[in-house]
Write a structure and sequence with these properties.
Layout: H1 3-21, H2 29-36, H3 40-51, H4 55-73, H5 78-84, H6 90-101, H7 105-109, E1 129-133, E2 140-144, H8 151-157
Antiparallel strand pairs: 1-2
Length: 169
Amino acid sequence: MSRGTEESNRRMLRVRDAMDRTYAQPLDIASLARIACLSPTHLIRTFRATFGETPHRYLQRRRVERAMYLLRATDRSVTDICLDVGFTSLGTFSRTFAGIVGEPPSAHRCRGPLPDVPTCFTINPASVTTTVSTGGNGGYVPAVTDGFVSSWATAVAFPASRPAAWGSS
């Protein structure tokens, strides 16, 4: 990897970290571009090339992931959760949530409380990555936690994305 690519990746990671820290606050491309020392247009192009989605889409997805957790772990209203995760419009929140999750927020809440994390997950303080056996094929699936959902929780929340080796729900 060239020194220029490495520096570009570091800048994009700084931007993504800033978005993760302040996801509930209004963020604009100009302030994110200042973090990366880039023009706003170049930031958008570079962020998409690095992470596969625009900064706006990444921020929406992070907000929806947090809302998914809050909907199932608390009894707060959908409107309160919408505002707490950084959306300013309930309509936009519901449309975005349904587009990402595949169901409206109220239907997601009806699934009930979150299941306990299986005991096969090992917390390794030295690393945020652990593995979980998939059973049938003898392989392992990375279980990377990002603060809101792990790949296991994503498989529970999005059954269609569950590996075939995990069986049907």
